[in-house]
């Protein structure tokens, strides 16, 4: 690891805005930062993977992976982040280094790759990702990117997050640091308004941002930049002119929100778009922040009128489902902001959450979960598949909501399952998303296949 990267990693891990660090002394934070990773600590995603996840939703830039082709193959299209315009981000670019590059260095190959991308695609910018192999052989991607930017007159952004420096969450923050160092503040919008906001940590999975944006548009609130779902390079570059910000996933991008508040006086809050009540609360907080920043006070009244209308519409559309879901027991195995936000959404429709995962949750997330769930509910931190299967049986859950990797445990337990993670094909954010979530849970719970699979086979009777 280069000295500069080591300093950056130390800075990110000492992030004062992180809930886990707020209760520690300076000495304890530094001690935690020097703790060596054990084998398997990056299972489920390395730092490179985390940086790619955080930045790939920028839709009009070229994402070039400087490393073996396997790194690009592992990370390409790993989330269903949708775009309303350019699809360049769906094209996988890699330098595909081989044995000779390891011996002689891959910097010239990287420079030629940047040149080829600019000539063929002419993107507004190129993001270059460092990987384990190229970091270990000492390729200086920052110097190459600087030289290429000067030569071709395009921003070429180095993302120095090789996989071996840590896990996926660290990579998320290192990706955010690249935006802070090289992108944010480098351009100016054509105009600004008192209603300009940023949304940070929202990736437009399955088009979830598009469930929220029409509501903001109706209120006259302009989404100056979403970092990074359905984002354009220029939007992120001038995002420093926003009046307020909402942070959706603190685990991933707290460093962006905090530093933008320090540098550009953009206040932020952490909120959720999942569930009727949380959606309404987020709209209120956005409007409240904008008013405190100088927007007309009548925005608050218009926000309340919109909330009243949308809540009534959502509950009307869900009234045929809520009696069927009342008191159904659900096990939620996800992480991050969804570990508490989806709990609240499920409880709103009368479901009983018997357990939720806290593996990728902050200390604040865990405290919210404790306040929401019953005393006998399980807070799952990190369980083996065997332990999780036992929990499914012991909790007598009616359905499990999780990511694709744990669906087979539910199927083995002959239990309905619904995908709640990033690979899903439905948008669950906002009022429309809540109606869709309830609809999909109902379809899964009452699918007649479960009655069939639970009937003993003739040779078992």
Automatic annotation (TrEMBL):
- InterPro entries the UniProt entry points to: Nase/OxRdtase_comp1, Nase_comp1_CS, NifE, NifE-like
Nitrogenase/oxidoreductase component domain segment(s): 46-445
The annotated pathway is: Cofactor biosynthesis; Fe-Mo cofactor biosynthesis
PROSITE patterns reported in the protein's UniProt record: NITROGENASE_1_1, NITROGENASE_1_2
Superkingdom of this protein's organism = Bacteria
* Keyword vocabulary terms for this entry: Nitrogen fixation
The GO terms describing molecular function are: nitrogenase activity
Alphabetical list of CDD domains matching this protein = Nitrogenase_NifE_I (cd01968)
What are the BP-aspect GO terms? protein-containing complex assembly
Asked if the record carries the keyword Secreted, the reply is no
- SUPFAM superfamilies, per this entry? Helical backbone' metal receptor
Q: Name one Pfam family in it.
A: Oxidored_nitro
What family is this protein classified in? Answer: Belongs to the NifD/NifK/NifE/NifN family.
Role according to the record = This protein may play a role in the biosynthesis of the prosthetic group of nitrogenase (FeMo cofactor).
Q: State the name under which the record lists this protein.
A: Nitrogenase iron-molybdenum cofactor biosynthesis protein NifE
Species of provenance = Sulfuriferula nivalis
- Tell me what gene encodes this: nifE
